[in-house]
Design goal:
The protein has 415 residues and is of the alpha/beta class. It has 15 helices and 14 strands. It is globular, with a radius of gyration of 22 Å. The structure holds adenosine-5'-diphosphate (ADP).
């Protein structure tokens, strides 16, 4: 049986078809530039059966895109799905579950309504997620759909860590609090880290882990006893670390100050902190860490500044989270930058010797593409490189939720 995993973004649709037993990726693809008037849509798909195909095509909306993806997957000759019921379930990445959805959830009409209500909190993300779910319900009636929320893993964060010190009414009336994102990724890598720690004699129940998801978006989580106790993103994904184009932490009064100085509405300032800041804003060059590293190495002062601010912020959060958890057993690096940049890992860990962090420079420079401990043997804190796999985690969660439900499914083997 296969699980279709769908990540439906504002103008793109990423998907993977995963074997529920072996976790092999049978097909993966990306439909992009959906609904863009100025650019033609494009689909790339890679399957175990037919290799890679790539073509331009018109896609006015997510419904169109999903029709075409579905036709590709079920194509009588080149498709990897011969009968629709080979797809046991669809797992959807949904960005914001608010306080209502703290677990992956089987999609019903009521759940769709709930996700729609949550769009107030994530106006850019939840609506396209919903379009993806609706398209799959139309194309695959009777096949269970599961929503896996980016916020859910952070639902265990205690109130003193998720509350902002604003008038309480804004929390009660408008849901203003920290939610956190990238939860599926933090959960996936933490699961592997817990196992790696267990092999070194550290029990999961007492473990204290800091996970650093460093991609275009960046966030960290403090994970104590396997449960999230804090995270750096907040009500929205703009809080916390320096990112490709997002500012991360700011003095909130900067927003009104800039609005006054630029004589610009708050929507313009929102655009600045989301799209024009971070590595791009600091360096003036690029939001891509590879460009920043290259320019910094060649002596570009603002690229070096961007690197320094980026790494300092992460180091500061590690210290804060070690204090929050009363100690630290492991730091985990994941996502594009975390998995591929020895320079960033080294700069983050430099100066953390007082916490018991001792990176093995040789391993840090050479290891790539697999879960591995990069700390020196004598290091009290382990430093782990763990490739993330959000699609695999969504497939696992989808199977788990269906198995725990009353829905008859071939995924559930009768006793
Ligand atoms: P997304 O958040 O869009 O999924 P990724 O997890 O793929 O993004 O991460 C993208 C980031 O990873 C980019 O900033 C890119 O420059 C960075 N990256 C990828 N490979 C390297 C590398 N070898 N060295 C430094 N940064 C890298």
């Amino acid at each position: 049986m296969k699980i279709l995993v769908l990540n439906s973004g504002s103008s793109s649709l990423k998907y993977q078809l995963i074997d529920s037993h072996t976790e092999e990726v049978v097909a993966k693809g990306l439909a992009e530039c959906i609904g863009m008037s100025q650019r033609c849509g494009h689909i790339v798909q890679q399957t175990t059966l037919a290799g890679k195909i790539s073509f331009d095509t018109e896609m006015n909306c997510h419904d169109d895109a999903m029709d075409q993806v579905f036709a590709l997957l079920t194509d009588p000759e080149k498709g990897v799905v011969k009968r629709i019921d080979e797809i046991a379930a669809v797992g959807h990445r949904v960005v914001h579950g608010g306080e209502k959805f703290v677990q992956p959830t089987i999609v019903t009409d009521a759940v769709l309504d709930g996700i729609e209500k949550m769009s107030q909190l994530a106006p850019l993300h939840n609506p396209p997620n919903l379009e993806g779910i609706r398209a799959c319900r139309r194309l695959m009636p009777g096949i269970p759909q599961v929503a896996v929320f980016d916020t859910a893993f952070h639902a265990t964060i205690p109130d003193y860590a998720y509350m902002y010190a604003l008038p309480y009414d804004y929390y009660a009336a408008f849901g203003v609090r920290r939610y956190g994102f990238h939860g599926t990724s933090h959960q996936y890598v933490a699961g592997i880290a817990l196992e790696m720690l267990r092999q070194r004699g550290i029990a999961p129940e007492t473990s204290r882990i800091v996970t650093c998801h460093l991609g275009n978006g960046c966030s960290m989580a403090a994970i104590q006893g396997g449960r999230a106790v804090d995270t750096s993103m907040g009500l929205t994904p703009v809080e916390g670390l320096v990112m490709g184009t997002r500012s991360g932490d700011l003095d909130p009064a900067i927003l009104t100050y800039l609005s006054r100085r630029l004589d610009a509405p708050v929507s313009d300032i929102d655009q600045i902190i989301n799209k024009e800041s971070g590595l791009l804003g600091l360096s003036g060059l690029s939001s891509d860490m590879r460009d920043i590293e290259e320019a910094a190495a060649a002596g570009h002062a603002r690229a070096e500044l961007a690197l320094a601010v980026f790494c300092y912020r992460i180091r500061k959060y590690i210290g804060a989270y070690a204090a929050a958890m009363g100690g630290l057993d492991a730091i985990v690096f994941t996502a594009g930058i975390g998995e591929n940049s020895p320079v960033i890992r080294e700069r983050v860990c430099r100066g953390l010797g007082f916490l018991g962090v001792d990176l093995d420079d040789g391993k840090n420079a050479t290891e790539r593409g697999r879960a591995v401990d990069l700390a020196a043997e004598s290091s009290r804190v382990r430093v782990m490189l763990i490739p993330t796999n959000e699609e695999r985690m969504i497939a696992r969660e989808t199977i788990r939720v269906i198995a725990a439900s009353a829905i008859p499914s071939p995924l559930v083997i009768a006793p």
